[in-house]
Amino acid sequence: MAECDLLAANIGSCSDTTSKGFATIGYVGNHSQATPTLNLSTGLVTNLTSTGNIYEVYQKGNNPFSDLTFSATERKTGMVFGKEIKVFVKGITPASALSVKALAGASVFMILKQLGEHGSAKYPILGIESPMRCTGVAWSAEEGAFEVTLAENNADMPALFLWKTDESTTDSLIAGLLPS
Q1: Measuring CA to CA, which residue among 76, 67, 52 is closest to residue 150?
Q2: 113: helix, strand or coil
Q3: Which residues, 6+ apart, have CB-to-CB distance to 9 below 8 Å?
Q4: What pLDDT, in 10s, does the model give residues 98-137?
Q5: Is the dihedral of CA 136, 87, 91, 118 positive or negative?
Q6: How buried is residue 5: exposed, middle or buried, by Cβ count under 10 Å (0-12/13-18/19+)?
Q7: Beta-carbon-side half-sphere exposure of residue 161 (alpha carbons within 13 Å)
Q8: What is the pTM of this model?
Q9: pLDDT at position 175, please?
Q10: 112 contacts 102 by C-beta, under 8 angstroms
């Protein structure tokens, strides 16, 4: 039972084999092109449209996006003030490369997917209420992808979550914003 108690602190229950943390894939989009349907009292973004694309981004390692601080209980999320996070953009074609380069200097938002979470807390969305800044875009020959550097504008932001009815509908919403 002691082993199960230790595991439960990390995975929620002994029958759940998914470790908590963030999925390796997140999504970044231009804040000025996004139109969220936002309910601050519930902390939910119930719909999101964009006149531009959002891009799949990833971080390598066993604990991706661990440089973010996140508390669903306190409804706060963000990074240590002034901190930057580096991500790589997936699936870039020559045609979409100019769009990604256009993110440099732009205000952006980022959607993440939490592992081991279910329901409306599964998809934290950063930068919708107070946009993050894209402080750099550079080609990484080693990764074969663009490295995008994001910096926060505020140290402490309310935790907001993208949630449209259920997980499947939310996943479909995100997929509809990706380049075709």
Answers
A1: 67
A2: coil
A3: none
A4: 777 778 888 888 898 887 778 888 888 888 877 888 888 8
A5: negative
A6: exposed
A7: 25
A8: 0.76
A9: 92
A10: no
